[in-house]
Amino acid sequence: MIAGLLALAAAGHFFTLGVNAGELQPTSAFLWAHAARAGPVKVEVARDAGFRRIVVGRTARALASADDTVHIRVGGLLPGRHYFYRFVHGNERSMVGRFQTAPQPARATTVRFAFSGDADATPAPGTHTPFYNHFEVYARMAAEHNDFNIDLGDTIYSDSEVPNTPVAVTLAAKRAKYRLNLSLPALQRLRAATGLYSHWDDHEFVNDFSREENGDAIYAAGVRAFRDYAPVTYTSSDGLYRTFRWGRNLELFLLDERSFRSAKATAGGVCNGPNGSPDLAPTAPQPVRNAFAALIPSLRNPPPPGCVERITDPSRTMLGARQYDRFTSAIAKANVTFKVVVNEVPIQQFYALPYDRWEGYAAEREKLLRFLQATVSNVVFLTTDTHATMINDARLQTLELGGPVDSGITEVVTGPVATMTFAKEIDGAVGSSGAGILISGLFFKPAPPRGVGMRCVSPDTYSYGEVVVTTSRLTITPKDAQGQPVKDVTGQPCEPVVIQAH
Predict the structure, then answer these.
(1) What residues does 148 pair with on adjacent strands?
(2) What is the 3-state secondary structure (H, E, C) of 261-324?
(3) Are 311 and 456 found together in one domain?
(4) Domain count, the chain
(5) Residue 139 in contact with residue 193, Cβ under 8 Å?
(6) Taking every pair of C-alpha atoms in the chain, what is the biggest distance, in angstroms?
């Protein structure tokens, strides 16, 4: 922490908004900085914090076309080594960043990382103070001294939930959102502390985004701004789908669930109820809907005609055919102990407003889970998006006729960093303060058939997941903004998730 603050203080005024190292491989990394103006800068990579053993010294450019950001890939590095880097312009130097290259593929080594997402630095109306918080979750992630971290989706909020905030639709407005988030020291500290894999979700574009519904113009602006402010690998054919291997024990599979998905089932209003809003739980069996009708009267009526049929339509896709085939082929062939699917939207079942999640693409969801269940061992989903901690088996079914059918694959949902929590969003959706906590306790926590039976549900906590991977086990500990175990809706700490290799 002290070293990070000193690095911040030492940084000159030419390099603003910190530094970042991404796309970490055994012999390379992708480095980023933001400059005060366009022009040439020097990049230095060293084995020591004092830069006495410089191993890379190259010239890069801050580009006006990229909002004065600098991107440079550096190679020729050694696997599994710590490096320090900085950017230099005349007498001014950036803050010092640090990263570790991935170990050699055959090396069995313990790997530590954290993940979270959903961060909005938009100020309270009429102030310069962030409406939610100062990104304390990011600061705690940096303090874990991990090998790398993952910033998983909604890295800005183009359409902030802060009242009276205009939607950022243009490229210029989205770039301004990134600069706003990066003005907070906690995010700069996270990005400089170690390597960071960055990934998008919907709010880099607009809420619940799909290209079919929202168009290519806003997609292009979102992609461009994201790539300006994060060192990532993107292609038009594969989007942001990537894989990264960390020795013999771990491979990451980062899925792009925005670039190729079909329109949501709500398109055209087919799932709208009499009030003009989408049905709150169209796939929940009617007895379950009836049990909650006293709290939400609209559930007394069956879902709108055609809604469930569209949700279960096998022609609809979350990943697109090319990405689905590439991902399933790669994970089936992965010669590593643990396969971690970095997942933008939840794949477990919890029925409430399923449209933007995997539940809203039910046929492909079942197809993927059955494939993984039959073909791949030691898989786990790590997810954000829902603004809550939710841990459960990614079941094939839960409340449907015949009862629960486990896939044997665990999903851990964490976050948010700084936005409206799930509990507060449910309060707003049903118009009742405290409804989010109540529903979580009455429906998400109890075991089937009374409820979904989540192992942990914490709907009102800013949080992250701390992950430790060894040769024999993968452990995920949900932590809050103070680095303490997240407390379940029952008031008890959520137990760490432990997956034993088999």
Answers:
(1) 113, 195
(2) CCCCCCHHHCCECCCCCECCCCCCCHHHHHHCCCCCHHHHCCCCCCHHHHHCCCCCCCCCHHHH
(3) yes
(4) 2
(5) no
(6) 71
Residue 354 forms part of a structural domain = yes
DSSP 123: B
428 with 335, same domain?
A: yes
Residue 61 domain flag: yes
Whole-angstrom CA distances from 315 to 160, 320, 355 are: 32, 10, 15
Q: Do residues 97 and 114 both lie within one domain?
A: no
Asked whether residue 218 is assigned to any structural domain, the reply reads no
Whether 34 shows a pLDDT value over 60: the answer reads yes
What is the pTM assigned to this prediction? 0.96
Q: How far is CA 385 from CA 200, 201, 248, 464, in A?
A: 10, 8, 29, 12
Tokens of 122: 């938009």
Minimal CA–CA distance to 281: which of 209, 218, 357, 206? 357
DSSP code at position 66: G
Query: Which two three-digit tokens encode residue 7?
Result: 């690095």
Give 53's Cβ-side CA count (13 Å radius). 6
Q: Could you tell me the end-to-end alpha-carbon distance of the chain, in angstroms, rounded to an integer?
A: 38
Q: Are residues 120 and 8 in the same domain?
A: no
Query: The domain containing residue 310 runs over which residues?
Result: 104-129+236-266+305-500
pLDDT tens, 299-345? 999 999 999 999 999 999 999 999 999 999 999 999 999 999 999 99
Locus of tokens 């303060």 = 433
Domain membership flag for residue 223: no
CATH code of residue 430: 3.60.21
